[in-house]
Amino acid sequence: MRPVTDARPGRWLLPSLMVAAxxxxxxxxxxxxxxxxxxxxFEGVRVNQITGYGLVVGLNGTGDKDQTGFTRxxxxxxxxxxxxxxxPTALKVKNVAAVMVTADLPPFVKxxxxxxxxxxxxxxxxxxxxxxxxVTAMKGLDDQIYSIxxxxxxxxxxxxxxxxxxxxxxxxxxxxxxxxxxxxxxxxIRWQGKETLSVKLNLPDFTTAARVAESIxxxxxxxxxxxxxxxxxxxxxxxxxxxxxxxxxAELENVAVEPDAIGKVIINERTGSVVVGENVKLSTVAVAxxxxxxxxxxxxxxxxxDPFSPGETVVTPETDVxxxxxADNLLLIERSTNINDVVKALNAIGVTPRDxxxxxxxxxxAGALHGELEIL
Length: 376
What we know:
Layout: E1 23-25, E2 34-35, H1 36-39, E3 40-42, E4 48-57, H2 69-81, E5 96-105, E6 114-121, E7 132-139, E8 145-152, E9 158-161, E10 166-169, E11 174-183, E12 196-201, H3 206-219, E13 226-227, E14 232-236, H4 245-253, E15 256-257, E16 264-268, E17 273-276, E18 281-282, E19 285-287, E20 292-303, E21 314-325, E22 331-333, H5 339-349, H6 353-365, E23 369-370, E24 372-375
Parallel strand pairs: 1-17, 16-24
Antiparallel strand pairs: 2-15, 3-12, 4-5, 4-7, 5-6, 6-11, 7-8, 8-11, 9-10, 12-14, 13-14, 16-17, 18-23, 19-22, 20-21
């Protein structure tokens, strides 16, 4: 048994565990303060989702099929509102597609403001390229209209289909209309005159919440900030800010806080990716990881009779199996107190990122991994 600083001849050592699509490690760096704006949001300041049902027209034969009944019915209803009466069964909708229109309504947005909208095919259209969204009312969960959307779609892809082959780039059944929605109604937010204000952490953590409260009290004396739980910090609004709360929030957004986080190892077995957090530590543990290689070769042994003899040709199958197992010795991984030590210890094992997925699970089972192991 020898320490991990010894390198064995012929052993491939990863120069860095930061391998594209394989292993990413958060490098150790001195803790630095982050603005509160990046760590939390303020109570009541949130995005609201709105949706609408509409029709995209002008497609080049890539719209819904005639079997899509709701598209034909929607087109018939649209024409009826324009004093044109056509039975749904008499309509062809290959140039029309039924779509769902979605958007995020930012807080404090005022009527007349332009927002981006996302248009997604609802039926069996093959492409929305070149289409134009007809005016669509977008509603919230309260069934109130908050925006109106209309305009030409930007798809960023295409789909071409022939009789025997097809070519597709990106995702042609979803498109975006930049500044295609016009806000018609403001989401009511009680803002001015508040006596208390709550700060909501994006990642709940008791230590971070306590540090946020401490930093707020240092920069804004009299606020009396206190953590209510791992995700909420409550503070009092001073009298001189109650009618001008925006100024106070602007000051709070720039309060510097040093966040804390649990040590975590995240594994994605589908892609072979491993991410190791900064606070992960290892206890002393011995690891042996041997590779097993099996090769199977199939062949045939042909035996032919002598010329002009009454014999028959005989074909005998042959299988050659070769098994090799790596003769890896037990390797000692010393106690790691920071992320740099973890990187050096794992590099010294000299295994692939795929092998590290198994090794991390075994180290945790041995009780030597001090951090949370999450497998996606």
